Amino acid sequence: MSSLPPQPLSPLDGRYRAAVSPLADFLSEAGLNRARVEVEVEWLIALTDRSLFGSSPLSDADKTRLRALYVDFGQTEIDWLAEKEAVTRHDVKAVEYLVRDRLSTLGLDAIAELTHFACTSEDINSASYAITVQRAVAQVWLPKLRAVIAKLAGIADEHRDAAMLSRTHGQPATPSTMGKEIAVFAWRLERVAAQIEGGDYLAKFSGATGTWSAHLAAEPDVDWPELSRSFIEGLGIGFNVLTTQIESHDWQVELYDRVRHAGGILHNLATDIWTYISLGFFAQIPVAGATGSSTMPHKINPIRFENAEANLEISGGLLQTLSQTLVTSRMQRDLTDSTTQRNIGVAFGHSLLALDNLERGLGEISLAQHVLLADLDANWEVLAEAIQTVVRAEIAAGRSQITDPYALLKDLTRGRRVGGAELAEFVRGLDIGDAAKQRLLELTPATYTGLASALVDEL
């Protein structure tokens, strides 16, 4: 059997590339290397700005040309680094050599020895990962999550008054509205989104074991911790002053756990919408030319929600592994985090793909209100809760002599279908005040929704 032409192994780089490609600008190998070049270049500028080791501040023109190394980072640099790393067997060292090479091209050889000055690889890496993950989350992942939240909020508002039979434990229960039930998901997701937005993205920049030992050996009169802090914060990320050789990754653990939490809520949403479609509460809007089944022409499968469900499970598993692995480093450093962090993009990719499917899927469903109303009308026994609660209130107010209202309603309704006429007859015979009796007689499953509609305003 002949070999295929080169093919992507991951579906994220094949079938689903269009949906997740924006992440590649940040969380791919090339995106990481571009960030590494950015950190190396900005460190050079920070050192020369302070005229350290006989250097002088660069002109604005030289700074612009130097920054072009990462601003215009492209295929030429990607190929150069691949060839160099094949020799160095060290990715960060290859980046250092790239910067040195470009300094020579720019006529800036005089500052070449300040490239990667006093840095361990993890100084560059921790800053680069913080930059790339922060940008990926802020510019790609969070906007897609917020698009889903906005879609949910719109559906919640549209269907705030659409009464529906609830199902607790899968059984008919006190009615709600479809809008309020969808609002619950928007509310939950908004809370986690806010936590993610407020999270830290930290880097260290303190040398081989986090002690600034080489820095002080080279120049003891510089406040290196303060210089490192101002440098890192100037990159738009936070500074971790107390570390080993690596930044401790706790901010990553926090982030990935929160993203996984959001994924769990989204998974719950996907399975609930799937179930509502199965019950006929939502009808799926046919897409021209689409095929639901290879053999059953009538079918419209809820594939958006099934796809989201599966990808959230894959993403959640990867995010959990990232959290479990990154929280630990043997003594001052081991390399388990290096391999693990290369899968950050994969974890976010599956999550982003799920969000994309959910956003699309939510735009391809239509509420079948007649189905909701028919379901309500077939389950008048859910008013038993209202009746026994009103009876209890009447007993407490001294307007009823009934001794056990719960048992009374349980005998009438448990395991039985009770129609509107039968319930009305039962209510008329109750020993309660006339006003309470009238309220109960006017109640229907479709109007027994409490504050469901008003609760949507909490969004």
UniProtKB/TrEMBL annotation:
Residues 14-308 form the Fumarate lyase N-terminal domain. InterPro entries: Fumarase/histidase_N, Fumarate_lyase_CS, Fumarate_lyase_fam, Fumarate_lyase_N, L-Aspartase-like, PurB_bact, PurB_C. Residues 329-449 form the Adenylosuccinate lyase PurB C-terminal domain. The keyword Lyase applies. Pathway: Purine metabolism; AMP biosynthesis via de novo pathway; AMP from IMP: step 2/2; Purine metabolism; IMP biosynthesis via de novo pathway; 5-amino-1-(5-phospho-D-ribosyl)imidazole-4-carboxamide from 5-amino-1-(5-phospho-D-ribosyl)imidazole-4-carboxylate: step 2/2. GO terms for molecular function: lyase activity. It holds the Pfam family ASL_C. It comes from the Bacteria. The keyword Lyase applies. Keywords: Lyase, Purine biosynthesis. PANTHER family: ADENYLOSUCCINATE LYASE. Catalyzes two reactions in de novo purine nucleotide biosynthesis. Catalyzes the breakdown of 5-aminoimidazole- (N-succinylocarboxamide) ribotide (SAICAR or 2-[5-amino-1-(5-phospho-beta-D-ribosyl)imidazole-4-carboxamido]succinate) to 5-aminoimidazole-4-carboxamide ribotide (AICAR or 5-amino-1-(5-phospho-beta-D-ribosyl)imidazole-4-carboxamide) and fumarate, and of adenylosuccinate (ADS or N(6)-(1,2-dicarboxyethyl)-AMP) to adenosine monophosphate (AMP) and fumarate. This is Adenylosuccinate lyase. It comes from Microbacterium terricola.
